[in-house]
Amino acid sequence: MGTGRQTRQRSAILGKIREAEGPLSIAQIHERAGGEIPRLGIATVYRAVKALREGGEIVAVELPGEEPHYETADRGHHHHFRCRVCEQTYDLGVCPVGIPRGTMLPGGYTVEDHSLTLYGRCADCVA
Amino acid sequence: MGTGRQTRQRSAILGKIREAEGPLSIAQIHERAGGEIPRLGIATVYRAVKALREGGEIVAVELPGEEPHYETADRGHHHHFRCRVCEQTYDLGVCPVGIPRGTMLPGGYTVEDHSLTLYGRCADCVA
DNA sequence: CGAATCTTGCGAACACAAACTCAATAGCAA
DNA sequence: TTGCTATTGAGTTTGTGTTCGCAAGATTCG
């Protein structure tokens, strides 16, 4: 599985995902990379994201009620904060969920994993 | 705002949501109520759910990567467990997230709310 | 440089959930 | 029971996110 050709649009797309403060939606990637590459097509973003996902460089992040967002695969276990004002999603370092893999909850539920999203206002939007 | 007429389909739909072990998708409501009301139309489920939502009887639950699910509005703060085998979602009583409203996280994020989903296997699917 | 072919941009096509249309049906009040 | 009218079911339509098809353009290798 080769990486394919190196084009301006592909490096712009991966670059924007890399330098983002959290996972980006397709629309956000399109906007941001489009600042660098005028007339960047949305289909190109979809194609690049698909390829990057198949190559294991980025992963999809599903947020409640949102379209998929994408971030680099090297960020490890973490959670997300979504600002209700600017609608940005940010990575968080903390994991305030004390439920290790394998825990059995009352009711017989065996936990393998979890997903936490915090909601509120980011620093810029508290003003 | 009246409740409208009482029909067999509406009471079946609300009944299924009430007796469910967790939030149901439109498709699940359709399936379950359809056992009681043959030839129940999907549009009727959408219409009933919309009316129940506007009347404050049920609320939408957004789960990562899923269509909206619906449950009765009287269940208070709780979280959900999703079985990866049977793809059912169950209500949980526990809230293992120690982040009260108003907490400020490193980075300047002010938390108002949170949403947690646990993944694993339910009792029936551990076999 | 030049050819081969992979990639791009754009419009059309698709998939899916949700809403609408309307004739037939069923609640409800008298 | 009777009539009025809200509701239903089935199909059609909309809306939005994603993919496809193809001609034009870019990248890589000889």
TrEMBL record, chains A, B:
GO terms for molecular function: DNA-binding transcription factor activity; transcription cis-regulatory region binding; zinc ion binding. The keyword Metal-binding applies. Keywords: DNA-binding, Iron, Metal-binding, Repressor, Transcription, Transcription regulation, Zinc. Zn(2+) binds at C83, C86, C122, C125. It comes from the Bacteria. Binds 1 zinc ion per subunit. Binds 1 Mn(2+) or Fe(2+) ion per subunit. Gene3D superfamilies: 3.30.1490.190, Winged helix-like DNA-binding domain superfamily/Winged helix DNA-binding domain (1.10.10.10). The keyword Transcription regulation applies. Its cofactor is Zn(2+); Mn(2+); Fe(2+). It holds the Pfam family FUR. PANTHER family: HYDROGEN PEROXIDE SENSITIVE REPRESSOR, ZINC UPTAKE REGULATION PROTEIN. This is Peroxide stress regulator Ferric uptake regulation protein Fe2+/Zn2+ uptake regulation proteins. The lineage of its organism: Bacteria, Bacillati, Actinomycetota, Rubrobacteria, Rubrobacterales.
